[in-house]
Amino acid sequence: MSTLSRDEVAKLAGLARIEMTEAEMVDLSSQFGTILDAVARVQELDLIGVKATSHPQPLENIARPDVVQPSLTPDEALSGAPAQEEQRFRVPQILGEE
Amino acid sequence: MALNYDEVVAKYDPVLGLEVHVELNTESKMFCSCATTFGAEPNTQTCPVCLALPGALPVVNAKAIESTIKIGLALNCSIAPYSRFARKNYFYPDMPKNFQISQYDEPICFDGYVDVEIETEEGPKQFRIEVERVHMEEDTGKSLHVGGATGRIHGADYSLLDYNRAGIPLVEIVTKIVPGTGKYAPEVAKAYVAELRDILRGLGVSDVKMEQGSLRCDANVSLMLKDATELGTRSETKNVNSLRSVERAIRGEMLRHAEILETGGKVKQETRHFQEDTGLTRSGRSKEQAEDYRYFPDPDLVPVKPDAAWIETLRATLPERPSIRRKRLKEQWAVPDKEFEAMVNADVLDIVEQTVLLGADPTKARTWWLGEVSRIANDKGVSITEISITPADVAELINLVASGELTDKLARQVVEGVIAGEGSPSEVVAKRGIKVVNDDGALMAAIEKVCAAQADTAEKVRGGHLPAAGALIGAVMKETAGQADAAKVRELLLKYLGQ
Amino acid sequence: MIYKNATEMAAALAAKEISSVELTQSHLNRIGAVDGDVKAFLHVDTEGALAQAAAVDADRAAGKALSPLAGVPLALKDVLAQKGVPTTAGSKILQGWKPPYDSTVVSKLKNAGVVILGKTNMDEFAMGSSTENSGYGPTFNPWDLTRTPGGSSGGSAAAVSAFEAPLAIGSDTGGSIRQPAALTGIVGVRPTYGAVSRYGLIAYSSSLDQAGPFGRTVLDTAMLHEIIAGYDPHDATSINASVPSVVAAAKNGDVKGMKIGVIKQLQGEGYQKGVQTRFTESLDLLASLGAEIVEVDCPSFEFALAAYYLIAPSECSSNLARFDAMRYGLRTGDEGGASAEAVMASTRDAGFGREVKRRIILGTYALSSGYYDAYYGSAQKIRTLIIQDYAKAFTQADVLVSPTAPTTAYKIGEKVDDPMAMYLGDVATIPVNLAGICGMSLPAGLAEEDNLPVGFQIMAPAMQDQRLYQAGAALEAALSSKWGGTLITKAPALAGGAR
Ligand SMILES: [Zn+2]
């Protein structure tokens, strides 16, 4: 039986940027056993030498010419913005740094 | 007691690692057709794709792939017959999708090198910088931090985001670790970035303007004791945005690391930010947990498999390596070191070469571009490549002077005319009615007048004291408003005075 | 008129027996009468639909050449962006969002003059098989309002089944068109991956998602299929080839000499008795029409469900990262100087439902460092094996068949608390998605035990979509003549409906 601890759920929720209550984390942790057991079946087969498929169609080298097309207008671009100022998206203070 | 730089490099060996991000100068963005114009009004160059609106999909810019392969070839890399885009997943407000499309374990170019030469106490010395990989990715948007005391991210009340830059093609060039540079580490790093900049400019794939952020350097530095076998802990300094800063940042980090090690401390593996004003780095906010980017092949994009014949076609179009070209031109033109350095710094190699290729004398071409044309460009506050006079104009001008149709002084007026938009040099000459006074009668009149006015001097010359003629010639030139040919004046004057 | 097939409506429009405005208005009336019970629509665009219909009528009056379905109304799954019309993907996180652009499917529909009545309910971000995971409440099965219509395209299927629209668009990532078609007694096709552009289709799992048509007959479905299919340069995974002639195939239903492969792994244990009975009956019917029935072995299908529930969540964990409260959609927790990071986390908690969170967490886990190879990597290899199984099976048969879903429609709430039980309902449809091929579900009759519709699934190789229609039309004709009309004409009348 696979498990995912409450702490692991908390770490994953952090990576996925989802706030979770204690109850939600415990709840998810308890459901994950069955789900992980089911998906872990992919490890049952001997897959050595089997190629991974990430695209169902064998396409390659799809690119577009370097030609400018009209952009959205700033009004359209900002039309869904929860907040805006000076034709920019206004967002709360950013803590992290990159 | 902190060690000084000489003491640091006597005791420790620095190890470098450099990551350079280059914005390509494609017309459109990496994965959408928005324009890439620098300095446009905020959010005027955005679309569903680069704003990551629900449902939008990326399609790769073919030119970006071509430019990246060219860069790889110019850096002596192998070009991968098969490469893929991967998603680098992390949340950040300036990155609309909250993942960056990049390349992970399948970069398009790998295993290259760049040779750089620096001046050392023992003369010029070459260092080979090995390039681990060159890969494609996309730039982020720009944030403006509002409120707070410093205007920086910390203490800001909120931020304003402009996504014009989001999705501009970026190429990341990553070196392998660079050991063995010793006390020259800062200079080698600077020379490497300068060489990269020149190579990229030569390829015409990027504007490579560090001040505009189209070329950015992250510098990894660590120190190890001279006899150690294990690498020290490195710091990564970001935001190093000029050649001089590369040098300063590395030197600063070497000193900072040494001070920590000397006082028994441990260098923290962290991201640091270079500050132009102080030349020091400051610590970034440390994260509670190591990032886990969860890279996986981007299912929206298909593999890139460049055709081998196409790669060879691109290889054949590569320009001469800038460092090799510089050597060649310096020799061909017989330019002294100092002057050649001035040409490189003034960024006139290309135009001087073009002028020479049009038949002009190299020394004359250099003098015109570095002298009169640079002066006018300076006055106007524009760069020499932006000013409206072409190598063809300058070549024609030099020709006119050589054939005696213009004096140097008249030629300067012609340059002004060309820049003012009056046409080519010969057109300016015609329009302004500029011509060398070759009319012996007019010249003789001037000579007689000058000799009468300066009878004493004229007498000296008549008596055989030739150096005195200079003053008379100058006066005649003045009399004829500079339109006379000085050699002709001299000839007639001496004849008039019986010499 | 609303009880007619789309082809019949199109003929009446062409003959000017009815105007598109009248036809559209009758459907709007029907929606008004029954959708309070069925809840197929999240948004009815009365004004937009009537305007579009009026435009088609004007074009027809002006004698312009029109597409075959011009003026026929359609229900659009809320997963497709439509400019200016609320588009939520069934999620609270997108409540009120109006796209500034049209998805390619919507552009094609508009160009063809197909009238878009509104946006239909769905499991949030297409994650689910019952439409119960919608952020806006469930849709009810018109055959029995206490049951689910299946999902995730449950709203679209229910709309067609309840005569609210003759045609609808859905999307199919693991069976989300075929399974609800089966559960509501209509025809649904998941085209070959890459045949219909994904541009503007809000992504759940990029390598599996594909939009496709619903209709009440095989021919109606084919007509819509031809309109929405075709190469799109805005989707890098779009196939640049001509659209298979599905309409011609639907008009020429014929299985004489056709080899039909029954997949050993997709029947028997776990399949409801009535489902199995109807399936076998249809096979006998096909054999009586001259088809050769063979059994094929696809051993890796046993692992398809596991592979799917790793690949789809992994891709979704990345695809859904863009819903972060910065540029569009919901924003919560933005008070008291909360940081952008905190607002993102708060919004994603408030805006995403339970199943979406569950899959994001599962996908984040499967991609995280240390687990990638064991989970995501292995799943991608299973995918290769499934493709190989299909390739082999298609050397033995022209099309492959199975029941579409193991059971008929289940009660609302029956499986909500047991995600695994819900996932098992996709066991027969998922292999098609993993392999990127095409599949159809068409009605095979009612199960004796509950009098609810059973679906018959046909699968064909990539870009051989016409085979689905050729076989499907033959089976449909044989079944209809047996029943004295298509299955949908046997559906019970809805309260509030005229029927
Ligand atoms: Zn764009």
UniProtKB/TrEMBL annotation, chain A:
Extract the InterPro entries matched here. Answer: Asp/Glu-ADT_sf_sub_c (IPR036113), GatC (IPR003837)
Q: Which GO terms describe its biological process?
A: regulation of translational fidelity
Entry-linked Pfam families? GatC
Q: Where is this region: Disordered?
A: 72-98
Q: What is this protein called?
A: Unannotated protein
From TrEMBL, chain B:
**Signal peptide as annotated in the record:** none
> Which keywords does this Swiss-Prot/TrEMBL entry list?
ATP-binding, Ligase, Nucleotide-binding, Protein biosynthesis
InterPro entries assigned: Asn/Gln-tRNA_amidoTrfase_suB/E, Asn/Gln-tRNA_Trfase_suB/E_cat, Asn/Gln_amidotransferase, Asn/Gln_tRNA_amidoTrase-B-like, GatB, GatB_Yqey_C_2, Gln_synth/guanido_kin_cat_dom
What's the catalysed reaction? L-glutamyl-tRNA(Gln) + L-glutamine + ATP + H2O = L-glutaminyl-tRNA(Gln) + L-glutamate + ADP + phosphate + H(+)
The question of whether Lipoprotein is a record keyword is answered with no
GO-annotated molecular function: ATP binding; glutaminyl-tRNA synthase (glutamine-hydrolyzing) activity
**Chain positions covered by the region annotation Disordered:** 271-292
Q: Name one GO biological process term.
A: translation
Q: Which residues form the Asn/Gln amidotransferase domain?
A: 350-497
- SMART domains cross-referenced by the UniProt entry: GatB_Yqey
| Family statement | Belongs to the GatB/GatE family. GatB subfamily.
Protein name in the entry: Unannotated protein
TrEMBL record, chain C:
Q: What is its EC number?
A: 6.3.5.7
Query: Which reaction is recorded as catalysed by this protein?
Result: L-glutamyl-tRNA(Gln) + L-glutamine + ATP + H2O = L-glutaminyl-tRNA(Gln) + L-glutamate + ADP + phosphate + H(+)
Q: Recorded GO terms, molecular function?
A: ATP binding; glutaminyl-tRNA synthase (glutamine-hydrolyzing) activity
Give an example GO cellular component term for this record. mitochondrion
Its BP terms in the Gene Ontology are:
translation
Q: Which UniProt keywords apply?
A: ATP-binding, Ligase, Nucleotide-binding, Protein biosynthesis
- Its EC top class is ligase
Q: Where is the Amidase domain?
A: 22-468
> Which protein family is named in the record?
Belongs to the amidase family. GatA subfamily.
**What's the protein called, per UniProt?**
glutaminyl-tRNA synthase (glutamine-hydrolyzing)
